[in-house]
Amino acid sequence: MILWTLGHWGVGVSWIIVSVYYYGNIGYVASTITYLIFLFLILLFAVAPLVLFKREQKQDLSLNSLLFISSAFIIIELTRDFFFGGFPWLIPGTVLLDTKLSQIIPLIGAGGASFIIYFISSLIARYWQTSKLRALLIFIFASFLLIEQSSQPIKDYDDSITVRLVQSSLDPKIKQLNKNRSLIEETLIKLSKENSELVDLIIWPEAELPYAYQSKEYIALKQKFEQKPKLITGIWHFDDNSLFNALVNVNNDEIYQKRHLVPFGEYIPFKKALNPILSYFGAPISDISPGEDNQELISLNSKYKIAPLICYDIVFGNDVRKTVKSSNFIINISNDAWFGRSLGPYQHLEISRIRALENNKWLVRATNDGFSAVIDNKGTIVDFLDKGIQGSLDSNISTKNSPTIYALYGYYVPYLFAIFYTIFSLGRFLWLKHRVF
After folding, report:
1. Residue 281 and residue 144: Cα distance in Å, rounded?
2. Strand, helix or coil at 218?
3. Rounded CA gap, 235 and 84, in Å?
4. 105-130 and 412-436 are packed helices; what angle lies between their axes, rounded to 10 degrees?
5. Which residues in 218-249 are b (16+ Cβ under 10 Å) and which e?
6. Which of 257, 252, 255 is nearest to 302 (CA)?
7. Is 358 within 8 Å of 407 (Cβ atoms)?
8. In sequence order, what are the residues at sequence separation of 6 or more whose Cβ sits closer than 8 angstroms to the Cβ of residue 350?
9. What is the Cα–Cα distance from 286 to 20, expressed in whole angstroms?
10. What is the pLDDT of residue 23?
11. Which run of H or E residues covers position 23?
12. Average pLDDT, the chain
């Protein structure tokens, strides 16, 4: 189990080395040390609770034991929403995308999909000890259910709007020099303005502008987008002596502040312990504040409401579910340049697809370096800009949708079942133990 955890997490979050290098500008040695500290803490968190399962490692695991193990695993998974300020990354249920089982995701979400994966894995492990033929047959059947099946993007839909996603693909480090401010803005405007009368909404990436909300540069930008098309962009926001990573509708100044900050990128977990180490290597200590919960949706006009999410916000399934419930579609802007050429951008895109499928909402994501993408309400990528490509992407998206079972109450089903079943199993164990004595 420890070896699996090392492989799963060691490879899966190796992008932390790259992100800390880009954000902290402290070199690969210090970035690697930060990654190893993070990995060690993750391993403690993931492996330590497995002590609870020691009594369940029997020759012939019962159905009760399999349900208990599966329940305990998704409870551990749920607690990662709060660990390190929240790190619900690498959720196993996301692998059901593009498979025959993907239809359960709008019912019970990625968490419920994880429960199914844990149960099937436990079932195979059970029979591997007693009947390898049965274990192999279960494995083959499960593999058949996980075979990739292609789905065609939706083409015919009513009540659509046209969006343009802008991907500047500029080196993130050029923002550090004031002389490059005009270059960044000019690149964004050039990619936005051509045939702009054909689009309803232009979307720029997270934190791409090298100036703040309500600065003189912002006021000048606002004047350039007074009429159609409307512009939504990421921007820095100083408010009450706090700095926020924000998204703003330039036309009406509606603003959204990022709620979930990236560990080691925008805030430092365990500051007292880690700040001296990062300071020793000359890393700038991030001091960004998180936005409040229950922020208002962004208005495109009197007809359409947009659910705004910035980068890491998209990872938190329940918060996304509550935010997007009354919206027409979802915008996710991101600064994926700090992932570099790692696995991070692929994982981030996959998570966005899951959120679209769970909530039956079209989702558009604009990133500064890829992958910018248009995703339909079935989680299918309609169109995208590849990593490192500078350009813009125009697409029609549907604004009509109805809430899924997951969006209404399905999110809670697997977790409530897991909690009640775990309590029941522990109570049953203690009662049997007491009865024996």
Report:
1. 50
2. helix
3. 25
4. 40
5. beebeeebeeebbbbbbbbbeeeeeebbbbbb
6. 252
7. yes
8. 94, 97
9. 11
10. 66
11. helix 15-24
12. 86
Which residue has 């749920």 as its token pair? Answer: 78
pLDDT band per the 50, 70, 90 thresholds, residue 427: confident
Please give the pLDDT value at position 421. 92
What pLDDT does residue 409 have? 92
Structural domains of the chain in order of their starting residue, each with its CATH number: 2-150+411-436 (no CATH), 160-259+295-403 (3.60.110.10)
CA nearest to 213, candidates 259, 255, 182, 174:
255
C-beta of residue 357 within 8 angstroms of C-beta of residue 377: yes
Measured distance CA(377)–CA(400) in Å, rounded: 10
**Torsion region of 200: left, alpha or beta (phi above 0 gives left; psi -120 to 50 gives alpha):** alpha
Q: Which residue has the higher pLDDT, 316 or 80?
A: 316
Are 180 and 210 within 8 A, CB to CB? Answer: yes
CA–CA separation, 241 and 117 (whole Å): 46
pLDDT tens digits, residue range 2-36? 677 778 888 888 888 887 777 666 677 778 887 88
According to DSSP, the β-strands at 381-385 and 391-398 are unpaired
- 431, two tokens: 């009662």
- By residue count, the chain amounts to 437
The token pair that represents 129 in the structure block:
């000890």
387, two tokens: 């990593």
- Give mean pLDDT, residues 420-432: 84
Task: Provide the pLDDT for residue 320.
Answer: 97
With 0-12 CB in 10 A as exposed, 13-18 as middle and 19+ as buried, what is 3?
exposed
392 has which bridge partners?
Answer: 166
SS3 30: helix
219-269 tens-digit pLDDT: 999 998 877 789 999 999 999 889 999 999 999 999 999 999 887 667 766
Query: How far is 429 from 198, CA to CA, in rounded Å?
Result: 66
Element holding 373 (H helix, E strand): strand 372-375
Angle at 384 between CA 92 and CA 337, to 5 degrees: 75
Contact by Cβ (8 Å): 321, 267: no
Structure tokens belonging to residue 138: 């279960």
pLDDT of residue 285: 54
Single out the residue of 330, 385, 335, 334 nearest to residue 356, CA to CA.
Answer: 330
